[in-house]
Amino acid sequence: MPTLADSIRIFDAGNAQALAADLFRESFNTDFPVPRTNAGLSFPTPPENWRQYVAVYRWPDGTEETVGFCNWIKHGDVYLEGGMCVSKTIYRRMPKDHFRECQARGGIAQMMMEQAARELTDCKAWFGYCGDAKALAVDLRAGYVITEHKYLIVKWFAAVPEGERKALIDSIAALGPF
Question: Could you tell me the CATH number of the domain that includes residue 152?
Fold first, then answer.
């Protein structure tokens, strides 16, 4: 049987609607966030600023299934992360050895953030909003820290002086949920 590494691909899909719309709807019961200029957020969202990562799992019979999705939007010197979702049934359906390895690696959400962190380094930080305890545990393992603003978390990618950090955190908090 192939290893987990041979069975899962995590990549920036550009516009991931064709791959992840069903998973996103199942997870959030809302329309997929198609990269577009007017995304309904409080800041500009030109399509070229979007990065949509997916995790695709190849089953032993060769079929493929999108089992994870996350969105990053570049905003100035940072990325705003949102929409993280993982198939609610993937872990109980995958072969036990794949499940154990995936669990040892922190799960699909953590694996997706680690892959994106190797590629989306053209920034000072990533920001996210997180009010779910289980998701927050994964975010903290992936390097995020809690800020003084309710639900706002940050993962630093550059050495930023403390005063500038606070100003940047406050400016992102002022955007509201993203």
Answer: 3.40.630.30
Both tokens assigned to 70 = 């996350």
* CA gap 132, 145 in Å, rounded: 14
Among the listed residues 142, 126, 125, the one whose alpha carbon sits nearest the alpha carbon of residue 81: 126
Beta bridge partners of 65: 57
How many structural domains compose the chain? 1
What pLDDT shows up at residue 2?
Answer: 87
- Residue 143 pLDDT class (50, 70, 90 cuts): very high
Structural domain for 93, as ranges: 4-175
Note the helical H segments in 70-132: 90-93, 96-104, 108-119
pLDDT digits (tens, 9 = 90+) for 23-74: 999 999 999 999 999 898 989 999 999 999 999 999 999 999 999 999 999 9
What pTM was computed for the model? 0.94
